[in-house]
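Pilot study result, target chain (249 residues):
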Amino acid sequence: MPTNFYFQSGNTSGTTSEQRLVEDLVIESLKIYGHDVYYLPRNIANQDPIFGEDPLSYFSQYYPLEMYLENVEGFEGEGDLFTKFGFEFRASATFVVSKRRWEESVANNAEDLQLTTRPSEGDILYFPKTKTFFEIKYVDFLNPFYQLGKINIFKLKCEVFEYSSERFNTGNAEIDAIDDKSEDQYAYQFLLEGGDDLLLDSGDSLILAGYSISEIDPLANNEDFDTLAYDGILDFTSINPFGEVLVRN
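Predicted structure:
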């Protein structure tokens, strides 16, 4: 049975002027109740086609946008955890952004976007109010479902970003500060005779063991183990390069 033309205007549920009005109201609401958030698109350098990973990916652009934090009572997720690997902060959040505002600010200006029609999983959001980086895990673009026959918002379901080897060079000092640790780490990496970095097959840098002991794990008791190993414990150091077991007396 065909729908009522006077209410649905053919294949849509609203006229263009009505759709535009609702979209303008959505944007105004986000500007009133939302927060300033920086959108950082991920630049892909050499993605693994099998695992979908890219250890050489980097962030060189940032775009301010108004977004509404849907979790009004705070971040969700498991929160603060103390595990055997150290302290972890596991939190999740859902940010709401206007489709038109994302297209105007990001899609029309950014370079090398993974997706040009919507935000992409793997991109980063920086929330200045709590100085937290969030990684987009899922983009919901059908909720609410076609108000007046048009999609007006994206819901970005995010988790706290876990920094690994990504490079940040956006020009914003507050954002690029996350990369300070990696810059310190690069000072301890192996170099070739020509001064170039010695890289592994995965593209990661090869770091001196001394950095791992003094910087990454300051509570490590390697010196104590080395002292105890002097009496009757098997020695696997460079003193024994041929693989034979050497016992110190």
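One observation from the pilot: The longest helix spans residues 16-33. A full batch analysis is planned for the follow-on phase.
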